Amino acid sequence: PSSNPIVLYWHRTDLRLHDSPALKAALSLNPSIFIPLWTWDPHYVYRSRVGPNRWRFLLESQDELSKSYKRLNPKQQLWVVREAPITILPKLFKAWGITHLVFEKDTDAYARARDEEVLQLAEKAGVEVIVRMGRNLFDPDELVSKNGGKATMSMAQVEKAAQNIGNGCPERIVETPVEGEIPDAWEFERMRLDSDFKVGVDEKPDLNEGFRTGKDKQYVSVMGPKNDFGVPTLEEIGIKIEDATTPHRGGENEALRILASCIKDEEYIGRFEKPNTSPADFEPQSTTILSPHLHFGTLSVRKFWWDVQDILEKRRKEKKSVSTIPTNLPGQLLFRDMYFGAQAAVGDAFATTYGNPVVRLVDWHLQSKNLENGSETEDDTRNYTVDSEEAEEWFIRWREGRTGFPWIDALMRQLRREGWIHHLGRHSVACFLTRGGCYVSWERGAEVFEELLIDHETACNIGNWMWLSCTAFFAQFYRCYSPIAFGKKWDPEGNFIRRYVPELADFDKKYIYEPWKAPIADQKKWGCRVTGDGSGSSEKEEGKTYPKPMFDFDKRRQICLDSMKNAYDVGLHGADKEVMDGSWGEK
Ligand code: FAD
Prior knowledge:
Layout: E1 6-10, H1 21-27, E2 33-39, H2 42-47, H3 52-72, E3 79-81, H4 85-95, E4 100-104, H5 109-124, E5 128-132, H6 140-146, H7 155-166, H8 188-191, H9 207-213, H10 252-264, H11 266-271, H12 291-296, H13 301-317, H14 329-346, H15 369-375, H16 388-400, H17 406-418, H18 423-433, H19 442-452, H20 458-468, H21 485-490, H22 495-500, H23 520-525, E6 529-530, E7 545-546, H24 553-570, H25 577-580
Helix pairs in contact: 4-5, 6-7, 6-14, 7-14, 14-20, 19-20
Bound molecules: flavin-adenine dinucleotide (FAD).
Flavin-adenine dinucleotide binds next to helix 12, helix 14, helix 18 and helix 20.
């Protein structure tokens, strides 16, 4: 019946209607019935670490997509089913008589395995599958293939590979569907799923328990509480709206609005150089904050690229100054592709040290769980300079924004509250946690980012953590960010700290980066004592307190430098034999 296609369009990484090659391919089948679908994947719902802010951004984006479909065709919506794709899709193929399944290509390790299985299930059901690229400038697999089959580990490699794909440019964007171009879904009665589709447990999922234990809990009805395949509310998934404090809004309209306002400022686009944008700016921030929109696909990365290129081209013709790759905006988008290419080549092991051929092994005070399981024995001979309890405490204080270093704490509190921090802010806190302070494994830091970022993207998060910890991509471990001098350079008045660490709002700028140096009389005058560890338990003083620094930074920096040098001299990688068989660290 391909003359009468019944098309299931599976939205995953593309919560948009504009510039979607996959959506275009689906619509050009000329469907008699068209069903845009979102499957509630338990991997995302229960197993990954997703904080309230990212949930909110996702649901807002889905809600808007659903409304956009409705606007183009009042009989349409985003049809959300609450069940894993592997189990629900075969049932839907049958119930709705699907002839074609269409989706955007996803090269994340988990997604690849899932899609491989879906492909087989579709084949069994006689459903034709169409997959199109659209999530990156260049197909990560193609990037890898043009890089000699190897992970893309530098911008030079990415640029060279890209030259061999499209002369260094991604494909031009495709049109957005307009009114009349979105066919109907089945009549609602035919969409309805009967009791065969009721799944599992008759209680509401407990998000925390779900992702800690990895239990596969399911919703009572795949169609949602109103039986209308609606987009869930925060309440339905057990999140309090007051916990989702991010000011950054989801949805395709918001993404296009932000892009358009950036593009309108030709000076900004033309001169944009990442290292010159301030991590301490707020309202407005100094970069685009389009990363969460690229993550959820509410913005097409190719549209971003071409809109910027058109401005750069115009300025070149007008002989106006134009910044260049890698510091300009196209350069930023190529960094994103670089990490996608690296992940596509390495696969599952990209997200860990264990088994990862590109990552350098470092004897962190706190290793990832994988390595501990592999190699820690009672008489572990690794050269710990502090015991791991102390390092665990540092890690917790870092995560909670109470290290006693106001620049670090302000950033970590911004991250928790808003779900986004500037790239150089991420540099500061990641360097501090790993090779420039705590000497804690980058994997522990990446987990915290995974939970708190609204733009969390496995390839970019993992890749950047490796970069900052000097375990891959970047090797100049002797270049370290000071938690005092670096922030001061950007924001001598300390306004960023005053905003996110309000206890210190009245401190003189002389002490705002090092409040522990302020005389007690001044601390009292400014209404905040520097004492305790910020946990609220050790302070005996009445009134506001801010913690003392958790260590002497200069001493820690030296220890880190010496240890990094040693790790580089040893030169082991995550996939080396000693790591894989657990003999690393034995005498
Ligand atoms: P802009 O400066 O406006 O750049 C435009 C776009 O380019 C961004 O939206 C982003 O898609 C891309 N981009 C810019 N810099 C990078 C980079 N270094 N790596 C990859 N892509 C880049 N970015 C994520 O998208 N998801 C993550 O989970 C993530 N985790 C990070 C973790 C650490 C430790 C560090 C140091 C960086 C991380 N980044 C991550 C990269 C970068 O910090 C963000 O992409 C950027 O700050 C987003 O803000 P923006 O959209 O205003 O960026």
